[in-house]
Amino acid sequence: MTTTGKTSIEIGVYTLADIGPNPLTGKTITPKERVTEIIQAAKLADEAGLDIFGIGEHHRLDYASSSPAVILAAIAQATNNIRLTSTTSVLSTLDPVRLFEDFATLDLLSDGRAEILAGRGAFIESFPLFGFRTDDYDELFEEHMNLLLQLNQNETVTWSGKFRSSIQDAEIAPRPVQDELPIWIGVGGSPESAVRAGKFGVGMAMAILGGNPNRFKPLVDLFRQTGKEAGHAPDMLKVGVTGHAYFAKTSEQARDEFYPYYANYWEYVNRQRGMGTRLSRDDFEQMVGPESALLVGSPDQIVEKILKQHELFGHQRFLAQVDIGGQPFEYVMNSIELLATEIAPRVRKELQK
């Protein structure tokens, strides 16, 4: 962590690697171009002094990352300090042994910078793809998380469950550079997910994509209370906030530049989900208001929003998704630069007072 003092926060960026058409030109980049840009973005984030870079998992032709560990391994070779995490690994349909070994290998390649953020993900295509039933989601997640935590803590594991074949005195290799890989659970908004994260004693990362962030405060309280009752130390119960973001020198510039791409993003995401709605400019203006969690604006506005959220949650991590909707790569780079050079230093300075 680059921060010092009594109160600190890790700040970074993440991508889900969506491949959408540029709404102004109609051009869609190739998966190879998308992956190349992601590696370049991570390199810039590292050089600029951000703390975390994350990449998501999807199994669709309109996303470029079905294997976060592989892309993060390439990023590990192009960076020096930035921590590398999945955002998220779809744990219900991943084999926990394979997941742990992939990220333990990433930890070796990155000299101890790997993390796992496990969650459900936005889509369900991985369930039929890997032979699982969506009806079993909760049971699968519980079982796989239990096993993942055992793998993280022990070199040799004996385990049996309902969905995966049993293992007997299995050697789990390689072991990571870190004593244990940091593990987080991604939470979309359900109390059940917050309770689950607290019970397991891992970090909780909340995806707050819009609306008033106050509605997530009960989840944080529930998470911390559950973790405390389960006997976990408070410093194990870290909270992260993730969300969509776009930064520019002025608020007007940020809104004008981002709206076509944000509307485009929701149009194709909603279409993927079988809905035909389109985001109007008036609706967008409401979504970026001062009480909203959507982080679109000037550095002054973004610093104020992050500090307001920190006052609400007391979270230890903030991650911005800055590359959605088919944006030109120069827009993504500009947002990363502003986050690293203007927003993050001011947030850290305020929190150290």
UniProtKB/TrEMBL annotation:
Domain of life: Bacteria
Pfam families in alphabetical order: Bac_luciferase
Keyword annotations: Monooxygenase, Oxidoreductase
Keyword Repressor: no
InterPro entries: Bact_Lucif_Oxidored, Luciferase-like_dom, Luciferase-like_sf
Domain Luciferase-like: from-to ranges: 10-315
Protein name, UniProt field: LLM family oxidoreductase
Species name: Metabacillus malikii
Origin organism lineage: Bacteria, Bacillati, Bacillota, Bacilli, Bacillales
